[in-house]
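Q: Sequence in, structure out?
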Amino acid sequence: MQSTAIAFSPSFSLSNNPRKLIGQRFNPLSVYSAKHQRFGNGLVSFSSTCKISPISCSLRQSGWISAVNPKPQNDSVAVRAAAESAAVEEESPKSNSFSDTLVLGMLFGMWYLFTVYFSIYSKQVLEVFPYPVTVTLSQFTVGTVIVILMWTLNLCKRPKISGAQLAAILPLAVMHTLGNLFTNMSLGKVSVSFTHTIKAMEPFFSVILSAMFLGEIPTIWIGLALLPIVGGVSLASITEVSFNWVGFWSAMASNLTNQSRNVLSKKLMVKKEDALDNITLFSIITIMSFILMVPTTILMEGIKFTPSYLEAAGLNIKEICTRSLLAALSYHAYQQVAYMILQRISPVTHSVGNCVKRAVVIVASVLFFRTPVSPVNSLGTGIALAGVFLYSRVKRIKPKTT
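A: Exactly. Output:
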């Protein structure tokens, strides 16, 4: 394929040895600093302490209608002025609705773009630096620095956390950490498109875990919607050129841990006194994930991300550090933007948007990496994504109560 979904600058190599990677260079992005988000895919409700002012397109401005003399010469003038004022009042909600839709569309665009960049940057780094634990630590390190800067600069209120709250958050942080780690492990072993095809099975794990630990029995419609998801992923797997069992099971483990985090958030953080606003919860989880990853990285991979080691491995130090940084910034940005979107729409609509995001990432990665895709593989991916969309729609159907 000669076309690509995103324009990039001329190629260069992360490695001093051209055989290791024929890279293509991205233009650096200015990462959107989000001040408002929603955590947990709608499973935990919070009210944020960091407000975002939406663009206002209201026609009501100060002094829009000039003051007239106390005694108008004609009653029709007063009637017409009152009618015009009422018309302005009626136009304002429409204008606000349009501006809200515009802002929401921009947020969706950023969500998809940051996810694409995270996936591609991470894949390029992991191709020449096959240490997913270290890469995961670098992403949580950058996120922790961002959080501390936001608190230091008073962009968000510094939270006061009790021991009971930390104890409730810890299991969520563990699942969040494992989810990102397994995603990076999968990206390092198989193609980006295949990783995201497998991750389309998240609804399957959500239904199973919710039934096991929350007692939420799925309806027959949800069960039927899961069939094309499982069938599509299976079809895509048996025809995947880059298939690797480690990459496959890592993506599956990512689904399991991410959905376990969502179930735990329902089961553990149910007390009102334990509730935190969304950005605070995500910030604390990011810091806890960083703390958890430091000893894990040292024990599993040692200290690999140093100039001397990278140089000895024949890698381009500047470029691999740049791409690692941009991957980490993109990861933190797409997470926050996703929660900002969830604050504005329903969880069901958000899940539909997440399905579209998955398709965008798959197509973008196939075009960028020129991943060979067979017709049967494309069919399997399409069936799986269609199943995810169907699942998000049938969730609206409420079971009949007797």
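Residues 1-12, 18-73, 75-83, 85-91 have pLDDT under 50 and may be disordered.
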